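#struct-queue
[09:14] JT: dropping the first one here, sequence first, then the structure tokens:
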Amino acid sequence: MGYRVAVVGATGNVGREILAILEELNFPVEKMHAIASRKSKGVEVSFGDRTIKCEDIEQFDFSSVDLVLMSAGGAVSREWSEKIGKAGPIVIDNSSAFRQDPDVPLIVPEVNPDDAKLARKKNIVANPNCSTAQLVVALKPLHDAAKIKRVVVSTYQSVSGAGKEGMDELWNQTKAIYGLGDATPKKFPKQIAFNVIPYIGSFRDDGYTDEEAKMWEETHKMLDPSIKLTVTCVRVPVFVGHSEAVTVEFDRPIAPDEAREILREAPGVQVIDKQEHDGYITPVDAAGEHAVYVSRIRKDPTVEHGLSFWVVSDNLRKGAALNAVQIAQLLDETGVITPSSGYRTLTV
């Protein structure tokens, strides 16, 4: 017995990862539906040891399920999420469509689990931007210990954050450059192979990009609106895994050793921090893992109470699919959702 679940966008990178993680974490699923656009109807995807065929979103009866995990992009979410919510199930939306809606909680379970009680306002819960998710998991325990005043972040974001097209472009450009082929950019504004691009999203009037703005807006909503945050988002030629160079100013002194101990005890965080070649984490190390890794914790001598550190996580997992499934677990454990079969997890 368990939940009747639909994954919308089941053929995409994140959709397939959601299906895998639901199985990995033994989320109680009674019936699984893979939902996609009409052109993908009948396409087969894996769920555990089973293969299921995608159903057409236009024809699917969403009142027949308890929970919908939406990962089909902002346009699809804006068209469908509220309609689905009104039909009964809770929607966990992986796009940016509802993140700043005051009636929609934006949740990272390690950071603001109490906001789960707001999920029934619209029957929608928003999943944060991939770079924000790993950042706030690292900031939350430090903020609890010594209030954060200001954060400076530079991201190093993998091409999988731009979907399958982004990963294909890096692969194809790399082959083209080695083989003297055509490396003309198609998905990204400039060549991504052997290059970095200090631009993700679209420019705003203030010179920042909307990807950068998402990070401070979402941090303010989930953690503390008083934290000052400035961000530079950069696309790098890495297939999976986002990295962030983070500098934090606190309202009291906090030594690197104290920060290490705080983070070692924090949920969802692993500290790998030694001054040797295997004493820090890279995106290759984090790929396929659940944790948010923190390395290179050190004092920032340019401010009164400052630390700098390095944060790495698999953006398809904690940055997207894993966090969505963890939200589903949170909703189940707190009784916000209950399956029509009557089953409910007893572990809280």
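[09:21] JT: and here's the second one, same format:
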Amino acid sequence: MMPPKFQLLALVLFALAMLFIENQIRKLEESRAKLERTMARFELREVEQRQNRDTVRESPVLSESDDLLIIYNRVPKTGSTSFTNIAYDLCAKNRYHVLHINTTKNNPVMSLQDQVRFVRNVTSWKEMKPGFYHGHVAYLDFSKFSVRAKPIYINVVRDPIERLVSYYYFLRFGDDYRPGLRRRKQGDKKTFDECVASGGSDCAPEKLWLQIPFFCGHSSECWNVGSHWALEQAKYNLVNEYLLVGVTEELEDFIMMLEAALPRFFRGATDLYRTGKKSHLRKTSEKKPPTKESISKLQQSDVWKMENEFYEFALEQFQFVRAHGVRERDGELFVLTQNFFYEKIYPKVN
């Protein structure tokens, strides 16, 4: 028999030995688990890389963000040049293409064959994706041509009388964008008020009929002056087919909201508009505000009432969208961050 003190020492040593062995076993198990996780991640990465290589080899498609298309079918004299220059200034930095749609004699209506050509070009021209297309073209419904992905439409509208006055003087005096270019009505010194008083054709109420048909589209009824069907169709398209429609008077807010919604294209646009020289590039020369009498005479026409109804409809929709996406703090507007999240996700993942 061993003396009691040696027995106690032996038990202590045995216990220490067991603890040491258990600790080593635990470390080995942790190392094995770590190694298994590392191998699993490596295998997963290998599978993903192999799938990516196979995908590229089988179907060289663009990523979702690079497949985006924006069409800005700009209405004349609504501040479209100022906004378009923002897109040109950002395209290299944000890696997208800008293309101007130049139609013969600035005709906003395309022939049927040109509609087909345009839709095919825009949707299949991979080298020009992502792309920002702009031009004085009426809305074109891509869904009629059985394409898989429709472009994102945006636009800007303006008070109809202010737009007409700006266009009237633009045809006679041009602007500060290309001051040397001779305009169609150059040399005509008659003011807008004089034109209204004499019943001239360039200031007739029918000349107000432009924003409605641009949003209505390529149907013949869209271009029938005073068509109530065209007005309702323009409203429908504005709400259902356009991502955002701004107003000239609040162009900065329009740009800020686009930057928040589509940073792939418009990252940096708000600062560029506020500080860049091109943001206020184009201003109509020699423009004189109309008198109350001229405005009142135009406002008596049914065409003005319809165009103004459409403008106010667009303004209300824009202010509604802005109210749900923008807040004011210390006199400055800021865009709200993401205000939704996901929960109760099933089935549960271990």
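[09:30] RK: nice, looked through the second one.
[09:31] RK: The two ends are 56 Å apart (CA to CA).
[09:31] JT: good to know. Residues 4-58 form the longest helix (55 residues).
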